[in-house]
Amino acid sequence: MRVSRVAFLGLGAMGLPMASRLLEARHDLTVWNRTPGREGDLVARGAHGAPTPSDAARGAEVVITMLADVPALEQVLFGDDGVAATIAPTATLVDMSTVGPTAIRAATARLRPVAVVDAPVLGSVPHAETGALSILAGGEPEDVARCAEVLEPLGTVQHVGPLGSGATIKLANNAGVMSAMTCLGEVLAFTDRAGLDPDTVLDALGAGPLGSFVERFRDKVTGRVRSIDFRLALARKDLALALEEARSAGLELTVPMAAMARCDEAIANGRGDQDNTALVAEVRSGPPTG
Fold first, then answer.
1. What's the pTM value of the predicted model, to 2 decimals?
2. Are the C-beta atoms of 232 and 270 separated by less than 8 Å?
3. Given 107, 141, 161, which residue is the final one in a domain?
4. Can you give the CATH number for the domain in which 250 is found?
5. Which residues contact residue 2 at a Cβ distance below 8 angstroms, ignoring those fewer than 6 apart?
6. Options 5, 27, 170, 218, the catalytic residue
7. Which of 11, 276, 31, 14 has the alpha carbon at shortest distance from 129?
8. Are residues 66 and 149 in the same domain?
9. Residue 220 falls in the annotated catalytic set
10. pLDDT, tens only, 10-21
């Protein structure tokens, strides 16, 4: 594999293990994070720490952003000491955040002639740690091909269409996941009130069309695993983005809208920093009544 000069901006729960894998792949890696200190281990292992996004992007062939939301992306790209000030015209910006296609297209217009690829990921922290993410890449074929080798240590790169396609599919996926999570909470609330054993119910659900979903989240729903891989507050943010993008296309997503309302209830009850599967416990504890 050819060694590339890569800048990675955003060392959160997902970004840190992703950057670590790029370093293990022996890329010339420069890292930046809004909160200082998270880069310490990477720097000790050979990465370069940068004081600002602008410093990180200077001289990089590929600049990767993995940020929490649209305002964070806007600040990192176009704020004081932002990427736009120093990124080379021949570089490729790969945004792996979940920010939606509108934000990606707007950033692309402001960054021209820099090539932009939207490449959000499917998977959570364990997938990031093992390089098993599914990377949904949207952009021109040549732009995706140019950065694919850099992204390969992170997971499987799939070119899903033109710019914004990856961002759209990611929002669709997360809207579907949280809608299904709400549904699982409600059907378990229903069987709870019938006095049925939850494990027996989950065994039965696992044998039907919901099987893969139930098996993936079963240990968290039952409390056997308590790791936080995707915070509920971020899941709610993604639902809001999906609804916003759908409305701009003249569509109301009624089921994800209901899921977002249930997320709001859970967050109001202090579950925002818990794993997104906490939504099931919230729904089971007190579903709305007619």
1. 0.93
2. no
3. 161
4. 1.10.1040.10
5. 149
6. 170
7. 14
8. yes
9. no
10. 999 999 999 999
